[in-house]
């Protein structure tokens, strides 16, 4: 029998062990979206209304994230995805351990991959798999390919179909928000190549109800590395976006049926720094389990991502050098050791001016974004 991947059963824990206690967790206040007379209101984009390019551009420049409504993914499918993910994580620890992510591998069950960047443990478990190849990966959990396996795969494949179409729609919405014309979007070589080759990874996460939620973190501060992450979340808030001046964590509301879009570092590269990746983290609830199902859209591993010519203003230089996703990951590891950030290390010229007040966090190292006691200065 495979040994459990987590050291304790988070679901039955009566206390948060010291190894899971994040000392600097509350050094910046958490506020909700309704605070500060609209200043902390997470932007909302309505795709049913076409995704207003001006509103999308503002959200992407100032927040690197927004709530997405009118996206067309049926609410009942979202409910079925949540149900299947809950069933997956409710399996016995030894069953999930059959699919444990092995060192150096991208896919499999375990703690979120960023755990190696921190000494404190996170109150969560996740499972990464290629969205288009769920059947092969999930056989590790259900080798008999029985009914539970088939139900899980059917629902995830249906979800992948919807999300793939939504991802393409979102990409065009972002291109339009960058100011690209319909001809550039349809006929631009780089734009077309990105749309045709985008890859998708799912990483459902379970954040079990926590007996001392104010001591724990479900997911530590990070930026996503790819292009665009579309998150489906339980109706239990937990995702927080880092805002500046003053430094604070804005909790993203979790209205039924809405999705959350978060931009990753390679999208910041692609847009020459105009659209910003969002620093974020997840807190846990004292009352309820929370599930989130991020759908990560990014380039194929062999594609060198460089700023789109159409995103570099006339007379300006490309702000970043070209980088593949695996090269980016290596740069990020190096950046961690020097308290720099991957984006700073990839920079070859100045980016366009970002939002000064209240904007997204700057491209700085995680160690200085965290506080003493958050022990990620390694
Ligand atoms: C496609 C991916 C993005 C991700 C690494 C992964 O291969 C699968 C897991 C993803 C995740 C989820 C939690 C936060 C994050 C930083 C991590 O450690 O694993 C992201 C990764 C990422 O965006 O780099
Ligand atoms: O739990 C969430 O809503 C966010 C998950 C997340 O940030 C991630 O998987 O990268
Ligand atoms: Fe994330």
From TrEMBL:
<dbReference type="InterPro" id="IPR050231">
    <property type="entry name" value="Iron_ascorbate_oxido_reductase"/>
</dbReference>
<dbReference type="Pfam" id="PF14226">
    <property type="entry name" value="DIOX_N"/>
</dbReference>
<keyword id="KW-0223">Dioxygenase</keyword>
<dbReference type="GO" id="GO:0046872">
    <property type="term" value="F:metal ion binding"/>
</dbReference>
<dbReference type="GO" id="GO:0016707">
    <property type="term" value="F:gibberellin 3-beta-dioxygenase activity"/>
</dbReference>
<dbReference type="InterPro" id="IPR027443">
    <property type="entry name" value="IPNS-like_sf"/>
</dbReference>
<dbReference type="InterPro" id="IPR005123">
    <property type="entry name" value="Oxoglu/Fe-dep_dioxygenase_dom"/>
</dbReference>
<dbReference type="InterPro" id="IPR044861">
    <property type="entry name" value="IPNS-like_FE2OG_OXY"/>
</dbReference>
<protein>
    <recommendedName>
        <fullName>gibberellin 3beta-dioxygenase</fullName>
        <ecNumber>1.14.11.15</ecNumber>
    </recommendedName>
</protein>
<keyword id="KW-0560">Oxidoreductase</keyword>
<dbReference type="InterPro" id="IPR026992">
    <property type="entry name" value="DIOX_N"/>
</dbReference>
<keyword id="KW-0479">Metal-binding</keyword>
<dbReference type="Pfam" id="PF03171">
    <property type="entry name" value="2OG-FeII_Oxy"/>
</dbReference>
<feature type="domain" description="Fe2OG dioxygenase">
    <location>
        <begin position="204"/>
        <end position="299"/>
    </location>
</feature>
<feature type="region of interest" description="Disordered">
    <location>
        <begin position="350"/>
        <end position="378"/>
    </location>
</feature>
<keyword id="KW-0408">Iron</keyword>
<comment type="similarity">
    <text>Belongs to the iron/ascorbate-dependent oxidoreductase family.</text>
</comment>
<dbReference type="GO" id="GO:0009686">
    <property type="term" value="P:gibberellin biosynthetic process"/>
</dbReference>
